[in-house]
Amino acid sequence: MEAIKTKESRIVNTDQVLSCDLNNYNTLFGGVLMKKLDNVATLSARRHSRVKECVTASTDSIDFLCPIHQTDSVCIESFVTYTGKTSMEIFCKVIAEDMMTGERRMAATAFLTFVALDEKKQPVEVPGIIPETEEEKFLYNTAKERAEMRRLRRKKSKELAEYITVRKPWDK
Ligand SMILES: CCCCCCCCCCCCCCCC(=O)SCCNC(=O)CCNC(=O)[C@H](O)C(C)(C)COP(=O)(O)OP(=O)(O)OC[C@H]1O[C@@H](n2cnc3c(N)ncnc32)[C@H](O)[C@@H]1OP(=O)(O)O
């Protein structure tokens, strides 16, 4: 399978901050941003793999670096940074821009892992990636370490799931 350039999976989505999406502090509700991140990242995964369905296998931590105000625009940029056999790591950056002054701030960053599925909903192989810019190369070269951390985390999660109960709480 032929590798694909990182830029081919790049998705850029810019939105206003709607008043219905604010929290009690009048800044963008983090949950709304997380949903947007997943939507944009899904499109990057689908653009890279060109399959009908890609599922979110895991999300790393999200770092909210600064609040997003109603006077800002929110631009989410996502692209595939690294691929395994059937999985894709997607990096998202969130840039808030003050629409009055033009000041741009890095509001959040996040890594998500998607898996491409075939018609039977089984993981299917994805093309490799060709990073070109300095940023793409940096993310590509540091991805193996993040993948290993996820592998260990997944192992621990499975161990925990075997240990904890699924019994109804009142049936103890
Ligand atoms: C809280 C703050 C964070 C926020 C920061 C981002 C912000 C944004 C948040 C949006 C948060 C909403 C996100 C909901 C979005 C939906 O609603 S999507 C629906 C939710 N997702 C699902 O239902 C998926 C459920 N899981 C599954 O179906 C199966 O486990 C999977 C993912 C298809 C994997 O299938 P499997 O049979 O276990 O296959 P397996 O061969 O073991 O693994 C296949 C590949 O997946 C990889 N993989 C599997 N599990 C994992 C894992 N946990 N981690 C990494 N890689 C994995 C494997 O390493 C393997 O990779 P390759 O070596 O092939 O490259």
TrEMBL record:
Keywords: Hydrolase. SUPFAM superfamilies: Thioesterase/thiol ester dehydrase-isomerase (SSF54637). InterPro entries: Cytosol_ACT, HOTDOG_ACOT, HotDog_dom_sf, Thioestr_dom. The keyword Transferase does not apply. Pfam families: 4HBT. The keyword Hydrolase applies. CDD domains: BFIT_BACH. PROSITE patterns: HOTDOG_ACOT. Residues 7-120 form the HotDog ACOT-type domain. Belongs to the acyl coenzyme A hydrolase family. This is Acyl-CoA thioesterase. It comes from Metabacillus bambusae.
